[in-house]
Amino acid sequence: MSFAARPDWRSPLPIAQRIAYAAYDQPGRFLLPPQALAAGRVEGGSPLRLDIVQQNRPDQAGGGTLARYSILSLAFAADFGLDAARQAAFELGQRVQLAPLPVEGGWLRLNAVQALDLPPALDELLPLDAASLSALNLAVRLDSAATDLFVAALQRGLLAVGASAWLRVRGVAERVPLNLTFDPAALLAAVRGLSGGADEIDAALLRQRLTDAPQLLGLGLPERSGDIPASVLADAVLDRIAARLAAPKPSPADAAPGVRLVFDPAAMAPGRVQWNLADALLAPRLLILEADPLGPLRTLPAGELHDKVVRRFDARALASGWRSLSVRANLPERRIGVMTSQVDIQVPARPPARMTTLKASASLAASDKPVALELRLSPSEPLAYQWQTSAVVLSEGRAETLKGPLRSGEREHLLVGPDDFGLRLLPVEAEPAFLQQADIEVECFGTRKGKPWSARGPLDAARPALTFAVPFDVDDAQIRAVARARDGGAQRPMPPQPADGLRLDAFSFDGSGSRELALQCEFDDDARQCAIEIAPEDGIDDPLRRKRLSFTRARPRQDWGWLALSPFRGGYRWRWNAQAPWSPVLQPDAPLRLRSSEAAPAATTG
Asked: 27-63: buried (b, 16+ CB within 10 Å) or exposed (e) per residue?
């Protein structure tokens, strides 16, 4: 299994007040975790949505009831703070390439739920589903009473609502040259002893015990483990526990935001187990962030907030015995390579109450509106169904249907995500600020059934994201891109990278990033010292980016570095002094040669 481009937990890099992690098997590239979750941008709508569905359901006596429920959805965007981190890394002399660390989903916990009289269902731990590299969505079904509570809260205003988020990421575990032998049952007994009999424990407490006294957990460590720092050894063991024996979960609501490890007793039977702590394996970790679920909605009056958030849908009247299953797609909007996609629902027969199998389908469009499927069950029958996605893709000019895995469900709200398809969905996003400079052509390519396979699509200011639909049998899939300047048409390539989620910005393309220049002044007159002012080509008006360099006969050479913020403006300009004109834009691929005899009088001393 290839771990390329995964974060390497053993190689952290402090950058100012943040930590980045080396990309495994990609020297010089580091992945930066998000620093916060902000309200996401939703096409033509609000990041917070309450879709209220109501339906008249007649009964056999001729009367009826008005069935009502709602789907509350929240859209979040991960804030990586890459620009500030890159500038900080450059100022610290860290010549590294920074990219966002992708997340796989997580959980959200709203605060102030009880104080605002929000529905009790929102006081629980709510799942976050990753829709793309930086977008995460939440969807919760509320019954009629909970819907009324939330509408009332909207009308009062929700300014006090905030949230904490736990984002799930996977990286290559900490590694040390050591073998660990232990009895899983003894480890579980020790965990229960620390946690008062529970099968879960605070991860920080377990790490502290692994650091201070691992022998009390029944872990057999060889004597030479004393040569390894205790904290490093603890992280190596903890990563493997989280990967093989326990699942990391958020802390309870009555505790400070933290992480707990929930152990699986079925995986911890008595016996002897040996782990090679030098082996590479993927280990999950949880990142704890603050989240803002409202964003720009906070400035709206309560009445406008209600009108912006609430949408109402009336479903057609149903006869007795019918159930409504709402289907929602948590999918990227632009799916390159997919002609159509849908989810197929099947409810097996339940003789003698219901003799036939029920089938229904819902198209999975890019719209965020829920689709209601109507299923006629027997009156006392619980809702239980099987479901499967299908996607129609083009293969050698012909339509081909690829089905996803068969899954089971029993909830009245079905959320269909990227992992439910029979193909890989690889999101590619571009930084909106960079799309003001350039349009990008992106291509995913590889080999399928012995023949070349590719798909391509553009990114521009109006379409900042796309997702490649890649069949699982595409071999050696890679992504490459070309940025074309909107002013002048200059082109800059991005070297091919292994196919995975990508976020493109100015630093993805040749010509941007850290640049180095060698300068030399030849003293061909009687001057003892010579000075110039130099700046990046787009930084001559910024005093913080300009620099004064001095040359002497004893030190005629200087090296200067700068951070090129655009692949189209990676050069530099210089001048003798503040009164002299700036030079034309020069490129850093050749040293700058100066002569003291050519200097303006104010730039030299005799």
From this structure: eebbbbbbbebbbbebeeebbbbbbbbebebeeeeee
Structure tokens at 36: 């916060």
First and final C-alpha spacing in the chain: 67
What does DSSP assign to residue 146? H
Specify which residues 335 forms β-bridges with. Answer: 467
Question: Would you say residue 42 has pLDDT above 60?
Answer: yes
3-state secondary structure of 193: helix
Counting runs of H as helices and runs of E as strands, what totals does the chain give?
6, 42
Contact 495, 480 (CB under 8 A): yes
Among left, alpha and beta (phi > 0; psi -120 to 50; other), residue 476 is: left
Helix (H/G/I), strand (E/B), else coil: 46: coil
Q: What is the pLDDT of residue 220?
A: 73
pTM: 0.81
Helices 203-212 & 230-244 angle (0-180, nearest 10): 130
Please state, in angstroms and rounded to a whole number, the distance separating the CA atoms of residues 165 and 109. Answer: 6
In angstroms, the CA 207 to CA 194 distance is: 12
Q: Which of 126, 70, 546, 134 is nearest to 312 (CA)?
A: 70
The pLDDT tens digits for 389-447 are 999 998 777 889 999 999 999 888 888 888 899 999 999 999 988 999 999 999 999 99
Two structure tokens written together for 480: 């490459």
